[in-house]
Specification:
The protein is of the alpha/beta class. It contains 12 helices and 7 strands. It binds adenosine-5'-triphosphate (ATP) and magnesium ion.
Length: 249
């Protein structure tokens, strides 16, 4: 990937870098062309949020980190956009929190599954789940229901960045503690999450890791208190308010 072509001083550096990564992901066969459209939608919301982690998102990221540390089994679900945007950051988050990584695609093809798994391994992942596909999410059609039985299938906590609304709802109905990263607080994915993180996945994942590191020595009770204090309705309302008020300062 040639990321040097965009000068860091460019006022829209982050946004251009993001586009470049998605484009490279499509070229590499890890991101679908539909992923380009999803990226465009996300970018519009990010623009309105001021391309920053708003305070309510930072709180959500801290609660998500606490939830990951409390989990019996946490899984980070990775799709083609996430693999293109922040593969190394996903690997570090999984390492720091002891979580598993599972590839999970809306438009599932074995070829793309393999490519994403390879790409994650190139970025330091040891085990990548998702290829066994021996588990099912109830209530979804065959291809989209596929998960690994010993991954998302058995996990009590799942982080699903940029998940599609249907599957996010179905996972929540399975009783899992679901953490969603989505720049649109009105999307069904964000609305169905126990912990909705309204932030760019490129900022959200490393910030969750930072929080997990600083909570390393926290007691179980402290972690439980952090999760309990998180108010999902308030977080969604704060994000929507930030977008509607359009304060780009
Ligand atoms: P719904 O959730 O309402 O069913 P959808 O999931 O079908 O909608 P898509 O366009 O498929 O809608 O999903 C893309 C979602 O991912 C959008 O809500 C968009 O804001 C979000 N998104 C795209 N890029 C990013 C990113 N880099 N970080 C965080 N969220 C993103
Ligand atoms: Mg969605």
């Amino acid at each position: 990937m040639t990321e040097v072509e965009v000068p860091e001083s460019h006022p829209r550096y982050e946004s251009l870098l993001t586009r470049h990564r998605i484009e490279a992901g499509v070229e590499k066969g890890i991101t679908s062309r539909q992923g380009l459209i999803a990226q465009g939608r996300g970018e519009a919301y990010d623009y309105l949020l001021g391309e920053r982690t708003i305070p309510s998102a930072d709180e959500a990221e801290r609660a998500a980190a606490a939830q990951f540390l409390l989990a019996d089994q946490a899984v980070v679900s990775v799709n083609g956009n996430v693999a293109a945007l922040c593969p190394g950051e996903v690997v570090v988050l999984a390492e720091v929190t002891g979580a598993d990584i599972e590839v999970n695609l809306f438009n599932r093809t074995e070829e793309r599954m393999e490519r994403i798994a390879d790409h994650l391994r190139e970025h330091g992942a040891r085990d990548v789940l998702g290829l066994a596909a021996d588990g099912r999410i109830p209530g979804l059609d065959h291809e989209r229901a596929k998960v690994d039985a010993d991954g998302i299938g058995s996990a009590d906590t799942v982080l699903v960045p940029l998940e599609d609304g249907d599957r996010a709802e179905a996972l929540a109905e399975m009783g899992k503690t679901e953490i969603v990263v989505d720049l649109n607080p009105m999307s069904r994915s964000a609305q169905s999450a126990s912990i909705p993180i309204v932030d760019n996945v490129m900022r959200a994942v490393p910030n969750m890791t930072e929080h997990a590191r600083s909570l390393e020595d926290a007691s179980e009770q402290e972690l439980r208190d952090i999760v309990a204090a998180f108010d999902r309705e308030a977080a969604l309302a704060a994000a929507e308010d930030a977008i509607r008020s359009g304060d780009l300062g």
